[in-house]
Amino acid sequence: MSASIRQYAHFIVTIIGVIISSSTIAEPFLVWAVAPDTTWDQWFFLLVLHGAILVISNVIFCVMIRAKPAKFTESKPLKLVEDQ
Question: pLDDT of 23-62, one tens digit each?
């Protein structure tokens, strides 16, 4: 298990939950703004927009991802103080 997963798993899961909750709350308002008359053309635009956002997000993710943990996540060995 990598150091970043060990140290930040609870934070990452919380952020994912916040994003999912926010999108669930915002989605009806977005649909109402983009497709108020619920015509096929409006829904087509909404679905194409959603698909474009997904493709762009995935391309950015694939370009930016690194398999190696960041320096700040690495554990440093503890120095023991000898009794004097």
Answer: 999 989 988 998 899 899 999 999 999 999 999 999 999 9
Under DSSP, is residue 65 helix (H, G, I), strand (E, B) or coil? coil
Q: Which residues contact 28 (CB under 8 A, 6 or more apart)?
A: none
The pTM of the full predicted model, rounded to 2 decimals, is 0.58
Per the structure block, which two tokens stand in for 64?
């930016």
SS3 74: coil
Whether 34 and 45 have beta carbons less than 8 Å apart is answered as: yes
If DSSP codes are grouped into helix, strand and coil, which group holds residue 5?
Answer: helix
Residue 58's closest CA among 50, 68, 70, 69?
50
Q: Secondary structure of the chain: what % helix, strand, coil (to 5)?
A: 70, 0, 30
What is the rounded CA–CA span in Å between residue 76 and residue 4?
Answer: 13
